[in-house]
Amino acid sequence: MSDASFNASQAYEDEASFGDYFALLKPRVMSLVVFTALVGLVAAPVSVNPFVAFCAILFIAIGGGASGALNMWWDADIDAIMKRTKKRPIPAGKVGSEEAMQIGLALSAMSCVMLALATNIFAGLFLAFTIFFYVVVYTMWLKRLTPQNIVIGGAAGAFPPVIGWIAATGSMDVEPWLMFALTFMWTPPHFWALALFMRSDYDDAGVPMLTVTHGRRATRTHILVYTALLALFAVGAAFSDIGGPIYLTVAVVLNALFLRGAWKITRRDEDASEADNFKVERSFFKLSLLYLFLHFGAVLIEAVLKPFGLGGW
Description:
The chain is 73% helix and 0% strand. The chain is mainly α. It has two domains: 17-172, UbiA prenyltransferase (Tetracycline Repressor, domain 2, Orthogonal Bundle); 188-313. Helix 3 packs parallel to helix 6 (121-142), helix 6 (121-142) packs antiparallel against helix 7 and helix 9 (174-197) crosses helix 10 (199-205). The chain is flat and about 55 Å long.
């Protein structure tokens, strides 16, 4: 592991339960992976057998969970320091570090092979690349090296709709990369907003988040810039084959609200109390969760309605 000071072989405080092993897979992150991959699969311009579609989403979900387990294995030392993560299975002594690594590796191999068998080899290979990118490029390399960690590393979380599309079609097109861009550009303002009111965690753990290396003022400026760029991608996607009037309406409303929230963060009163300012940042963070779900939900609705002549342009 990355920090020898963390005792990877710590004894269990209690016998691990099913819930502890499930938590190891980062179920909240997995739910986002499942949903965006499903949208990518349904939005693809081909008909997919329901059973094949179910298997594809299942194995993509398992691959996402495997990434989470390997992330927790490598980051167990800093997870034990940060308030937000110290109750995770490994630092809490519920699951052993080596056991988490073995589970992550086994699930990674299984998910990639089974996705390739259920759909096509290209999808299995792309899932393997996504796991590698998240675990090696982001977790092991970028996260503790650069304040741009979440920008570059955010690509891993943006790949699932592309995997879903490839699982359905066996090929790449422009449309899944528009969904990729939506998630990729959303990730920095989402996590930087979290970092603004959780900065002490990253300070204590020595993680070079932008709030730590450049300060809060610079972070708020970055949030506004990325939110403006995100709005261009999000609204522009409405005029592609995955868009339509429903998506356009959702995108215009949500991006107006998101830009307003980013502007309020940028213009926050430095003389106001931390509690008042944190309310603004926390509100923006909560909106960011709704933002991505509703955008992909709109893409899904357009795709479902399209065969009936109701979705799309």
